[in-house]
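TICKET: design request
STATUS: open
ATTACHED STRUCTURE:
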């Protein structure tokens, strides 16, 4: 393979970073509360899904008292942080983006070890995080801190609309985008003047710790960002029960998001931004470029082992082209290399943990009994891979169209495929889901594409995309949000309306 100088530099830097971070494995981490490094008498061990013999670190298990202290610190810091000029907040965020950029390869290497992403996905995760910081900074700047002079009722009065922060937000993040999503949610809350308590996923806490340190280095005042780790239930319950938490910004599963929303609003009505799961469909019509469709669908179904909220998990293919399409899809799938994600050639790394690994085996067993496994279906036990959670990309045919595997979010590399007779049936199959996150279509027929765009019930949709049928790298200015059970708000992550969710309006009238 011939590489350009730029590509070589990219790979050299990533590989050097992989070597460099090795010396940090196994260290003991602290929580960060009010700018202080706080240890706990209880810790949990953090292992790598690449190879479970690698201990990445020991993280503190927060007690309820630690979580209360973090909320208190955030509450105390709120007064100053919310009142300083928004330009000062922007300046700190921009410095943080620059620091993150200078540490990009090291942070990406950490992501590979923490959650098993290959080098391209890991660097993409960091790039998205940096892009969110820069985009939200620009949004604050362009909108003048969301302060608008308005007309007034009387000539001796001056009026303006001022958007103000709420107070303390809990930031609860998933394992699969430990930088982009955690950083995006945190910056969204902080840049608008709120203070935060972060609870990272227990499978990816080190990246969260690194982000907290970067913010500190950038000049963030103590108490604005607090980081606690440990039991999800304990953190969740303490947050829910605290009258001092003004809002929650959460990304994760539908089950946890719904529970949090329900419980959090029992005490009093409070904002909760929740971006949830997906069961993302794609339609391939007889008017599609089948090579393009096979490439885009295999990448979306199996990229990061199907562990993306936007992963393609249902394919509806017009009967007349199904066998030709399946042949191409199987060829594409065979070409995707499963292996250690640190290695250059690897496309598919491991699953995140033993629960996901067991789930994969359970779903495959069900698929074998109710349908037909066209490719894959096994865990990988060769050589060193037996120490990680590696599984084969799997395609299932022959299931009833309303089968459990067509309905539930599985979060493993498993794609269900079936045929359809006419386009209306395909649309109905796509929309017959409680989820509504992403969807795609492959067709060169304008009428079909228009019908899809008019009728699909999802927040993010793609047409004829070869890089990914239902997934794709995001930039900050693009919104990514779910409809139906895939999200509890009407504005997505990123995009022009995101920041508005962290602020509330005050109309000010002054007699002059
Ligand atoms: P998860 O199990 O719902 O966990 C998400 C976060 O919530 C983690 O930090 C978890 O902590 C915490 N948590 C779990 N139970 C809690 C409770 N009772 N109270 C408070 N916090 C609690 O999801 P995940 O497995 O990390 O991520 C995968 C899910 O996220 C999928 O459903 C995926 O579709 C969704 N997702 C959605 C988007 C989107 O933009 N819509 C993006 C990415 C992921 P622990 O790690 O300690 O359990």
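STATUS: resolved
RESOLUTION: sequence designed for all positions
ATTACHED SEQUENCE:
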């Amino acid at each position: 393979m011939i590489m350009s100088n730029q590509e070589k530099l990219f790979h050299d830097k990533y590989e050097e970073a992989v070597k460099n971070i090795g010396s940090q494995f196994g260290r003991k981490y602290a929580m960060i509360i009010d700018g202080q490094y706080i240890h706990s008498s209880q810790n949990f061990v953090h292992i790598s899904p690449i190879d479970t013999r690698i201990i990445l670190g020991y993280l503190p298990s927060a007690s309820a008292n630690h979580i209360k202290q973090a909320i208190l610190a955030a509450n105390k810091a709120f007064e100053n942080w919310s009142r300083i000029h928004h330009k000062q907040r922007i300046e700190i965020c921009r410095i943080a983006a620059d620091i993150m950029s200078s540490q990009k390869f090291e942070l990406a290497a950490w992501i590979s070890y923490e959650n098993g992403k290959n080098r391209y996905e890991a660097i993409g995760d960091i790039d998205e995080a940096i892009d969110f910081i820069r985009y939200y900074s620009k949004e604050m700047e362009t909108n003048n801190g969301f302060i608008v002079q308005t007309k007034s009722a009387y000539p001796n009065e001056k009026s303006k609309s001022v958007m103000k922060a709420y107070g303390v937000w809990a930031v609860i993040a998933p394992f699969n985008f430990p930088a982009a999503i955690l950083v995006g949610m945190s910056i969204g809350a902080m840049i608008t003047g709120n203070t935060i308590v972060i609870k990272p996923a227990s499978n990816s806490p080190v990246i969260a710790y690194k982000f907290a340190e970067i913010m500190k280095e950038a000049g963030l005042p103590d108490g604005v960002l607090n980081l606690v780790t440990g039991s999800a239930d304990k953190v969740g319950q303490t947050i829910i029960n605290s009258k001092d938490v003004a809002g929650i910004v959460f990304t994760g599963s539908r089950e946890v998001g719904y529970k949090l929303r329900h419980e959090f609003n029992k005490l009093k009505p409070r904002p909760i931004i929740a971006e949830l799961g997906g069961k993302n469909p794609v339609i391939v019509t007889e008017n599609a470029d089948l090579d393009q469709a096979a490439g885009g669908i295999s990448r979306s179904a199996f990229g990061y082992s199907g562990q993306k909220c936007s992963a393609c998990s249902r394919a509806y293919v017009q009967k007349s082209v199904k066998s030709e399409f399946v042949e191409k899809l199987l060829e594409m799938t065979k070409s995707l290399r499963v292996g250690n994600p640190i290695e250059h050639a690897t496309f598919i790394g491991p699953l995140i943990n033993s629960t996901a690994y067991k789930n994969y085996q359970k779903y495959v067993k069900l698929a074998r009994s109710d349908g037909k496994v066209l490719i894959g279906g096994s865990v990988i036990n060769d050589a060193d891979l037996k120490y990680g959670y590696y599984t084969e990309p799997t395609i299932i045919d022959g299931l009833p169209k309303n089968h459990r595997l067509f309905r539930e979010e599985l979060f493993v590399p498993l794609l269900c495929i079936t045929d359809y007779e006419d386009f209306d049936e395909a649309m109905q199959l796509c929309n017959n889901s409680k989820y509504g996150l992403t969807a795609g279509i492959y067709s060169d027929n304008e009428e079909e594409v228009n019908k899809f765009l008019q009728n699909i019930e999802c927040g993010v949709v793609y047409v004829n995309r070869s890089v990914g049928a239902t997934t794709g790298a995001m930039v900050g200015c693009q919104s990514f949000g779910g409809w139906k059970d895939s999200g509890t708000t009407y504005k997505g992550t990123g995009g022009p309306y995101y920041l508005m969710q962290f602020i509330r309006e005050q109309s000010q009238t002054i007699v002059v």
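CLOSING REMARK: The pocket of NAP is lined by residues 172-177, 181, 199, 201-203, 232-233, 235-236, 251-253, 256, 259-260, 275-278, 309, 409, 411, 437, 480, 482, 486, 493 (CB under 6 Å). The first strand starts at residue 27 and ends at 28.
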